[in-house]
């Protein structure tokens, strides 16, 4: 480990996890809260739960956590009220101001009571206002009905009086008889007025008719605008109704039906003067209520703005306190109940900082006794801790999605930073598309400070988190696009004129036979003359397929070399001699040899068929190569490689289980216990050979595991090499799709010599390029590159069975949701 210079942290090293240690902290009760708070600010200790056998309610600080939970509920209530009122809490940019937790609790209680009272009063006033609005509508609509009925009755009476008695001999005596009836014996009709929801109005009328056996008369009037219902507070479409009935029994039935249908009833007078008086009173009360409600809402808004000024500060304080008490509950009380004992993992480099925080907490809390800090020895597997920055974090998360590295295991991220975007670019090679990706990514990178503080959508959040991955992918895409010489599928002689010229006018329709080399070879990438010829596809197919195999074999070799680095670091000679060596021999005697043949064929210009060479290397190894021979003594070399590949399989399979068994027996004879005195520095993780030192050794299980591992590697060497051909397939698909969009959309639209068709063609080309090539193809190539790293590369050396270092820290409290 490099010496710490200047700052609290040593230089970042991604290759292996930071050395970790199990520490014990003994803290006096009076300084425990402040100690945990300072350790949370430091963020370099992962506490272990020493009270895992206790339920949350049996722990020491259960009451304090309950208080924090209640305060968090009040803050959520405030946040909900501010959201409804359109008030945004002010950002808390300053440092944590030292505010008293008890004062915050009292203040929150007072504000909640005041806000609840204002809300309750406002609800009552709003309910009254809505009732009066309905009452006003009833007065208007029912008044219109009674007024029209009165006008109709008056007109009818005048008409009857103007008629002569002899004109209607049948009706006149009846009318005279009716007038002569004793008023005390007349049937008096009652009526009820109110509002009923419009969707229920027809059913309401039908039920009333059936319940009273038709002994009612009902009139309804539609209200054009929606009405706020006093009970629910929601807008609803309603009708005003007037029901005429006879008798108390009918009245009680009507009242029950109104209640069942949610119809609001309001009193109404037949007297026109009383109606006018009631309308005046209602209008006046509505104006008063509107003023009162407006004043109440203004007061509520002022109160919410006052809360919003301190909301983030209070929220952070409550979350901090809750986190502190949760952590304190993980510590155990000692026998005297005067101290708390905590255990946890921390990086070795953090020891001075932790001790400084403990001393500062003891001084600031006026504790007479200081805290005790000591390192414990353990054989427990420590957590894995890689210190990353904003550039490497996304790459580390790609690796962690497969599995977190075992403690001190080699980290694939070191090489993934380069290989992941490069393999993506091999499949996405087009420097025009790469520039489009680069422009989009630069927007995210240049505005990262502003965007990091905003809430983005799920997809945008994902893209923003991986902005540096996409940045690297776009840069490598530009590089491979220049090699393929493709700009939206169009070739450009950027670095020099083409090395070839056509022999005649029909050259573009011919094969390479029609081309004459007139200049030096094109200096960088594919010569632009290949594009558009009949031989373009066979040439690029051959080039990209062979290039995919070379890249695949190189990356698989890197994976096996990383397994050697792990074995050497953990001092496992067994893994070096009986895993690394035979794997290197097997892979390179077959597919390393194939890669060498590809390079030799490129260099010599030979016409040898490599498929024939590799197939007959297994089927007829003694047969003469003939025209497929690329170099002298090739047959002897092939026989040697084939023999070594066959030998490496039992070399991988047989010795390791027997050696592990012998090591296990040796440990049980007492040889392993002498080493405990030597391990006085950092933790040393046991290798695979010593992983079962205190467990029963199952030889059959180890042998079967090794057999599976051997078969998997042998078959995987073939399938993984073939899997890298996806680089060729996706690169070809991307190139052909780009070419189709250019030729069949853009050029075709250009050929019509019509401005409108050209505009439509350009729009279709842009949407097709963005939607298919820049979105779908990007995701496709991204997933394929991910698979190549997880399965073909990391599987060669990466166990990924560790667990992350998750320290107690306040850093992420502000971004968490309850």
UniProtKB/TrEMBL annotation:
Name of one Pfam family that matches: V_ATPase_I
Instruction: Identify the keywords attached in UniProt to this record, alphabetized.
Output: Coiled coil, Hydrogen ion transport, Ion transport, Membrane, Transmembrane, Transmembrane helix, Transport
Q: Does the keyword Transmembrane apply?
A: yes
Write down the InterPro entries for this protein, in alphabetical order. Answer: V-ATPase_116kDa_su (IPR002490), V-type_ATPase_116kDa_su_euka (IPR026028)
Q: Which domain of life is it from?
A: Eukaryota
- Transmembrane regions: 422-446, 467-484, 547-565, 577-600, 636-654, 755-776
Sections of the chain in a coiled coil: 101-135
- The reply on keyword S-adenosyl-L-methionine is no
Q: Which GO terms describe its biological process?
A: vacuolar acidification
Tell me the membrane topology, using the record's own terms: Multi-pass membrane protein
Spell out the subcellular localization from the entry. Membrane
Q: Give the GO molecular function terms.
A: ATPase binding; proton-transporting ATPase activity, rotational mechanism
What GO CC annotations are associated with the protein?
vacuolar proton-transporting V-type ATPase complex; vacuolar proton-transporting V-type ATPase, V0 domain
Where is this protein chiefly located?
A: membrane
Q: What does this protein do?
A: Essential component of the vacuolar proton pump (V-ATPase), a multimeric enzyme that catalyzes the translocation of protons across the membranes. Required for assembly and activity of the V-ATPase.
Entry similarity comment: Belongs to the V-ATPase 116 kDa subunit family.
Query: Protein name, please?
Result: V-type proton ATPase subunit a
Q: Which organism is it from?
A: Brassica campestris
């Amino acid at each position: 480990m490099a010496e710490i210079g200047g700052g609290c942290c040593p230089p970042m090293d991604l290759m292996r996890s930071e050395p970790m240690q199990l520490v014990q902290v003994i803290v006096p009760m009076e300084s425990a809260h402040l100690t945990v708070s300072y350790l949370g600010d430091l963020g370099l200790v992962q506490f272990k739960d020493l009270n895992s056998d206790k339920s949350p309610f049996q722990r020491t600080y259960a009451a304090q956590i309950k208080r924090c939970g209640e305060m968090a509920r009040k803050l959520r209530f405030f946040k909900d009220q501010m959201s409804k009122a359109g008030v945004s809490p002010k950002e808390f940019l300053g440092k944590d101001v030292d505010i008293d937790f008890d004062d915050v609790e009292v203040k929150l209680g007072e504000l909640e009571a005041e806000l609840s009272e204002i809300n309750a009063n406002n609800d009552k006033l709003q309910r009254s206002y809505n009732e009066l609005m309905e009452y006003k509508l009833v007065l208007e609509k029912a008044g219109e009905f009674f007024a029209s009925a009165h006008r109709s009755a008056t007109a009818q009476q005048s008409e009857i009086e103007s008629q002569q008695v002899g004109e209607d001999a049948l009706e006149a005596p009846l009318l005279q008889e009716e007038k002569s009836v004793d008023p005390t014996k007349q049937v008096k009709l009652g009526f009820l007025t109110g509002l009923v929801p419009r969707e229920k109005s027809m059913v309401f009328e039908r039920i009333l008719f059936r319940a009273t056996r038709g002994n009612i008369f009902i009139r309804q009037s539609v209200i054009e605008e929606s009405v706020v219902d006093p009970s629910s507070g929601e807008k609803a479409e309603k009708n005003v109704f007037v029901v005429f009935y006879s008798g108390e029994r009918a009245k009680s039935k009507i009242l029950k039906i109104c209640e069942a249908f949610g119809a609001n009833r309001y009193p109404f007078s037949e007297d026109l003067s009383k109606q006018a008086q009631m309308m005046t009173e209602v209008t006046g009360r509505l104006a008063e209520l509107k003023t009162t409600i407006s004043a109440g809402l203004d007061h509520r808004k002022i109160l919410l703005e006052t809360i919003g000024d301190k909301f983030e500060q209070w929220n952070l304080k409550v979350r901090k306190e809750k986190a502190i008490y949760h952590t304190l509950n993980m510590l155990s009380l000692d026998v005297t109940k005067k101290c708390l004992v905590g255990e946890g993992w921390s990086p070795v480099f953090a020891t001075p900082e932790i001790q400084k925080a403990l001393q500062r907490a003891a001084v600031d809390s006026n504790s007479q006794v200081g805290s005790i800090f000591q390192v414990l020895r353990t054989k427990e597997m420590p957590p894995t801790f890689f210190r990353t920055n904003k550039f490497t974090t996304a790459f580390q998360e790609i690796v962690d999605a497969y599995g977190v590295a075992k403690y001190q295991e080699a980290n694939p991220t070191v090489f993934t930073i380069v290989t992941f975007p490069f393999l993506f670019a091999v499949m996405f090679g087009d420097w025009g598309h790469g520039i489009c990706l680069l422009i989009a990514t630069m927007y995210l990178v240049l505005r990262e400070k502003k965007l990091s503080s905003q809430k983005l959508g799920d997809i945008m959040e994902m893209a923003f988190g991986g902005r540096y991955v996409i940045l690297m992918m776009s840069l490598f895409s530009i590089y491979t696009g220049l090699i393929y010489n493709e700009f939206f599928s169009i070739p450009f002689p950027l670095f020099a004129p083409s090395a070839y010229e056509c022999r005649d006018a029909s050259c573009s329709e011919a094969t390479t036979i029609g081309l004459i080399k007139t200049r030096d070879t094109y200096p960088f990438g594919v010569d632009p003359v290949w594009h558009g010829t009949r031989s373009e596809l066979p040439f690029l197919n051959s080039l990209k397929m062979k290039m995919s195999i070379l890249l695949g074999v190189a990356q698989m070799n890197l994976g096996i070399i990383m397994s050697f680095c792990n074995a050497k670091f953990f001092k496992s000679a067994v893994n070096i001699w009986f895993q690394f060596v035979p794997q290197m021999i097997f892979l390179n005697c077959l597919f390393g040899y194939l890669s060498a043949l590809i390079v030799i064929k490129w260099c010599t210009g030979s016409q040898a068929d490599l498929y024939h060479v590799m197939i007959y290397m297994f089927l007829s190894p003694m047969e003469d190569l003939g025209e497929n021979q690329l170099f002298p003594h090739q047959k002897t070399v092939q026989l040697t490689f084939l023999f070594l590949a066959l030998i490496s399989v039992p070399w991988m399979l047989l010795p390791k289980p027997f050696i592990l068994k012998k090591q296990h027996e040796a440990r049980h004879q007492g040889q392993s216990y002498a080493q405990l005195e030597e391990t006085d520095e950092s933790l040393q993780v046991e290798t695979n050979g010593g992983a079962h030192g205190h467990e029963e050794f199952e030889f059959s299980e180890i042998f079967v595991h090794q057999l599976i591992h051997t078969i998997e590697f042998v078959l995987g060497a073939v399938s993984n090499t073939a899997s890298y051909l996806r680089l060729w397939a996706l690169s070809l698909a991307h190139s052909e799709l780009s070419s189709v969009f250019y030729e069949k959309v853009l050029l075709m639209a250009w050929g019509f010599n019509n401005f409108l068709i050209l505009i439509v063609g350009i729009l279709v080309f842009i949407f097709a390029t963005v939607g298919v090539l820049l979105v779908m193809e990007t995701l496709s190539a991204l997933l394929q590159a991910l698979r190549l790293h997880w399965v073909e590369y990391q599987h060669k050396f990466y166990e990924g069975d560790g667990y992350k270092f998750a320290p107690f820290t306040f850093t992420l409290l502000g971004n968490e949701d309850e």
